[in-house]
Write a structure and sequence with these properties.
Helix content is 43%, strand content 20%. With 164 residues, it is an alpha/beta fold. It has one domain: Rossmann fold (3-Layer(aba) Sandwich), CATH 3.40.50. A three-stranded parallel sheet has the order 1-2-3, sandwiched between helices. It has a two-stranded parallel ribbon with strand order 4-5. The structure holds 4'-phosphopantetheine. 4'-phosphopantetheine binds next to β1 and α4. 4'-phosphopantetheine (PNS) binds at residues 8-10, 37, 73-74, 102, 105-106.
């Protein structure tokens, strides 16, 4: 394995904003490990298994993009993966405060940790998972915001939930 970076997140759901970050970061690093966080205390729309399935489908022909998951502290996962570099996307100024806090907390836990930030392309800066879920629930189209597989599975899940 060459020079690689870990891209952690909830990815609930995975969006075209995330995809844009990955497409660009593989021009900087040889590989990226997309690490899906399994937070048992947090209620998610897609289960961990579903999020992994979706990501594996999207990147099935992209050997430079590996899909994995982790539970517990990110720094412990990063250490086990044998690296010290984490990637985060930054959409807006309002992301900055949260990202800075997280990067500093992680650095306190693991001194060698480096968080690399990549600014999301302006075409995707407005995309958020809560907005996507709201649009789908109101029968709108999110095809500009998420890969096709995500839209299909979101519709199935959220519209079914509404019917029940
Ligand atoms: O996509 P998200 O929800 O903004 O991702 C946040 C995530 C999963 C990267 C962050 O919550 C995380 O690293 N969670 C693992 C637990 C942890 O290490 N917490 C301390 C970091 S401040």
């Amino acid at each position: 394995m060459g020079n690689y970076v870990i891209y952690p997140g909830s990815f609930d759901p995975f969006t075209k904003g995330h995809l844009n970050i990955i497409d660009r970061v593989v021009k900087v690093f040889d590989e990226v490990i997309v690490a899906v966080a399994h937070n048992v205390a947090k209620e998610t729309t897609f289960t961990l298994q579903e999020r992994l399935e979706i990501l594996k489908e999207i990147f099935r022909n992209r050997p430079e993009v590996k899909i994995d998951c982790f539970e517990g502290l990110l720094v412990d996962y990063v250490k086990k993966a044998g690296t010290n570099t984490v990637l985060r996307g930054m959409r807006t100024v309002s992301d900055f405060e949260y990202e800075l806090q997280m990067a500093l907390a992680n650095k306190t836990l693991f001194k060698e940790l480096e968080t690399v930030f990549m600014v999301t392309d302006s075409a995707y800066a407005h995309i958020s998972s809560s907005l996507i879920k709201q649009i789908i629930s109101l029968s709108g189209s999110v095809k500009e915001m998420v890969p096709e597989v995500v839209e299909t599975r979101l519709k199935k899940k959220l519209l079914k939930k509404r019917e029940s």
